[in-house]
Amino acid sequence: MYTDLPEYLNNPLKNLLKNKGNNLKPMKKNEISILGSGLIGSLLSIYLKKRGLKVDIYEKRADNRKGKYLEEGRSINMALSDRGWKALDDLGLTEKVKPLTIPMYGRQIHDEHGKTSFIPYGKEGQAIYSISRGRFNQLLMEEAEEVGVDIHFEHKIVDVNLRDHTLTVSNPEVEKETIASEVIIGSDGAYSALRNAMLKQVRFDYKQEYISHGYKELTIPATSEGEFALDPNALHIWPRGSFMLIALPNPDKSFTCTLFLPFEGKRVCFENIRDDRDLEGVFKTYFDDAYQIMPQLKKEYFDNPTSALINIECFPWMEHKALLIGDASHAMVPFYGQGMNCGFEDCYILDKLISKFGTNAWELVFAKFQKVRKPDTDAICQLAMDNFEEMKNVVSDPKFQIRKKIEARLHELYPLDWIPLYTMVTFSDIPYSEAYAQGKLQASIMDKVMADPLITQNWNKLDYEDIIDQLDKVKAV
Ligand SMILES: Cc1cc2nc3c(=O)[nH]c(=O)nc-3n(C[C@H](O)[C@H](O)[C@H](O)COP(=O)(O)OP(=O)(O)OC[C@H]3O[C@@H](n4cnc5c(N)ncnc54)[C@H](O)[C@@H]3O)c2cc1C
């Protein structure tokens, strides 16, 4: 007997007949099984199918194209940026996705008195793109089916056996079915069934952290004239220190707002908003300009779920021919708008490794993938945590805006030497870990520049060449 082969290959007859719930039916055997038809699973299935592989996806939800898309408390729209576009472009999907998006060229900051200021995200013309999660997911599933992927809706993975490479699937017709699969890919999100199976393996590292804050979705509808109530080409932020509200535009001229608050505490938090009066008090005090254009606030606030935010890091991501990808391997808090973009980049990189090593070397491909990708996903998870502080706190500080202007000027004058961290993460495909390291060096120089008490008056007269020299010196150390 070959000990490194899955059990079903060593004892095929016995195992092919071992299907639970239907003892005599031969066990189905897949080439590639993907768990979850979310954004990452759907995109990855297109990549794999285009390589001529037979791909089956198991999705626990019903087919959302047949009814109203149920968001289950997940964000309704999200920001798509360069890393995401790169994978879409690679698959020839850009022109199909673009009409679903609205460009946002910068942050529109709303202060407590309703005054606004605009901070561009990058150079002129650079934008991140608001897109509906539900509509985007539908499009990717349609594309997957069009190239021949089989999506099995209402098929929940209840167990994964890593020893004999089988999935236990429950679906409305057969209570439980066991399916063998040569390759298993877990793109089943932050609460992954494949990761649960890996957790039982020796030397599997796993860390999860819920942050103190949760979020709730709210809406700013279109005006009575059917127009956007705010500038649609910006991501709106109401930063208030320990909490914040943000809003992203939708094609129907509404905005989806996300309110981020601590779950509990002495000041403004979810626990302390118990009735309409509490809610009105918070919104009139801190978000009055938004409050005036949120007629459904009270109903939505108390009807919509309050969701938690989690950061997950684990390793290894593979066990033989089974691999974790997307949120299943690295769920991050949403403050850099990179979770999906990073997952799409995962798919792009995995595909290039398959191209290099072929479809008969899965273990090698997966080993290379996790080695190259893990430092980068660790870096973006950390950056996402750090950006939470920036978004709820410092973006409203006038010095932050000066800092951004200085960095933009440095980038304009020395485009290869100084690239603002946000630009590296959002508008480039520089590995996240390199962006993180370079960002730290730049921040150390900027902290010194900003320490000048007269910087708000003098920033225009800075010796920019000297700043670049300082950066070169710290890089050389
Ligand atoms: C509030 C918020 C805002 C965000 N904003 C952005 C943003 O602006 N930009 C960005 O890039 N990212 C953003 N993200 C992150 C982004 O949502 C995730 O990174 C992305 O959805 C991950 O996709 P995924 O396919 O890996 O997982 P998921 O989207 O979670 O999909 C997993 C799929 O697997 C299915 N599934 C789960 N368990 C099983 C099972 N046992 N059997 C079968 N099927 C199963 C689920 O039903 C689902 O369809 C945001 C996240 C949050 C919470």
UniProtKB/TrEMBL annotation:
Residues of the FAD-binding domain: 31-357
GO molecular function: FAD binding; kynurenine 3-monooxygenase activity
Signal peptide start-end: none
EC number(s) on file: 1.14.13.9
Assigned keywords, A-Z: FAD, Flavoprotein, Monooxygenase, NADP, Oxidoreductase, Pyridine nucleotide biosynthesis
Pathway the protein acts in: Cofactor biosynthesis; NAD(+) biosynthesis; quinolinate from L-kynurenine: step 1/3
Record protein name field: Kynurenine 3-monooxygenase
Organism name: Mongoliibacter ruber
Lineage summary: Bacteria, Pseudomonadati, Bacteroidota, Cytophagia, Cytophagales
Gene: kmo
